[in-house]
Design a protein that fits this description.
By secondary structure, this protein is of the alpha/beta class. The chain contains 12 helices and 14 strands. Helix 10 links the parallel strand 10 and strand 11. The mean pLDDT is 95.
């Protein structure tokens, strides 16, 4: 298979093209800009089109209209821009329209800075827009996964008729790694019998999210909740690393998942039985990964924020295991040694760093 050295952002863009994405609407914002740049050069060659909207609000609403035709559609942004898309995300979820939305997370709040961050965890996993809705959130940890998970995101979006978010940080978006151009896996997907492509020769179809009566609103909301519950049950994904005999666990996604693996290796060299759970889906959060952990004496989450995912870990273990967090903010990165020092501090372990 062909391999090429690409930035993580470029890997996402190439995977979108190879996944059959035909339309991209977006607005450039660091550190995600390479996505719209790469697609502007290459998507038209594959029969697609790229349009830079006047802002992020326009771009997400263009996605709404384009997705209603059945085309594969994507948009991409970074934290402040992703915030502006939240009303549109709620509309897409309500109308059950499949769109892939990429957020290359930078630090905040406000305009913040350009450094890598995981401060958008709450916004992406809890539904940043209004109303009761959920979107699948995928968290790659390396360039190859930026490529692979983009392909998966398009299939999940079509499978469930839902927006799917790819949440990465600026570090992953800007790091160059060799990418293997895998072919899109063969997946059986439902027929798009809902698209609005003109009704000559067939009954009219309507895509709407406005309910004139409370009774109709409840009926539609319950239907959506049933779909979200199905997604929660079937789509939890995670990676176990050295967990079979672990006495302590790290939990980290994205860049922190990579740091966590190195910390596990250093701890194991000192005889400390440390393991790692790396969430791949941030929603649905992989609660099943934490079932039956009788040997675990303590869990440390590793996050580039002030402590957000730690809340979901505490819920997953139902307060049966002590859970602490190790964080950095402002665009700063964690190190393996800082993780081990924190582990030693909170669980009274002897660790050499």
């Amino acid at each position: 298979m062909r391999r090429q050295l690409l930035k993580g952002n470029e890997a996402i863009a190439e995977a979108a093209i190879r996944s059959g994405c035909k339309l991209f609407f977006g607005y450039p914002i660091t550190p995600s800009t390479e996505i719209i740049e790469y697609l502007s050069r290459n998507l038209p060659k594959a029969g697609g089109a790229v349009l830079q909207g006047e802002d992020e609000i326009a771009s997400i609403n263009m996605c709404y209209g384009a997705a209603a035709t059945g085309a594969r559609v994507m948009t991409a942004s970074s934290s402040p821009g992703y915030s502006l898309k939240q009303e549109g995300m709620s509309y897409l979820a309500a109308a059950e329209l499949p769109v892939v939305v990429v957020n290359i997370n930078r630090n905040g709040p406000g305009l913040g800075g350009l450094g890598p961050s995981q401060g958008d965890y709450f916004q992406c996993t809890k539904g940043g827009g209004h109303g009761d809705y959920r979107t699948i959130v995928l968290a790659p940890s390396k360039g190859q996964e930026m490529y692979d998970y983009t392909m998966k995101a398009f299939d999940l979006a079509d499978k469930y008729r839902t927006p799917v978010v790819i949440l990465a940080d600026g570090m992953l978006g800007q790091t160059m790694e060799p990418i293997e151009f895998k072919e899109r896996p063969s997946v059986e997907l439902p027929e798009k019998d809902w698209v609005t492509t003109g009704c000559i020769g067939r009954p009219k179809r309507k895509i709407s999210m406005y309910n004139l009566t409370n009774e109709a609103g409840e009926e539609i909301s319950l239907k959506l909740q049933a779909k979200f519950n199905k997604m929660k049950d079937l789509e939890q994904q995670w990676e176990n690393y050295c967990t079979d005999d672990a006495e302590y666990l790290l939990v980290g996604y994205g860049t922190c998942g990579r740091v966590g693996k190195s910390a596990v290796q250093l701890a194991r060299q000192q005889g400390i039985k440390l393991g790692l759970i790396r969430p791949i889906t941030l929603w649905p959060f992989p609660e099943k990964a934490f079932i039956s952990l009788p040997k675990i004496k303590g869990i440390l989450t590793v996050e580039l924020n002030a402590g957000q995912m730690v809340e979901d870990v505490k819920l997953a273990v139902k307060c049966s295991i002590p859970v602490q967090s190790h964080t950095r903010v402002g665009g700063m990165l964690l190190s393996e040694n800082s993780v081990l020092k924190k582990l030693a501090e909170v669980f009274q372990l002897e660790v050499r760093v």
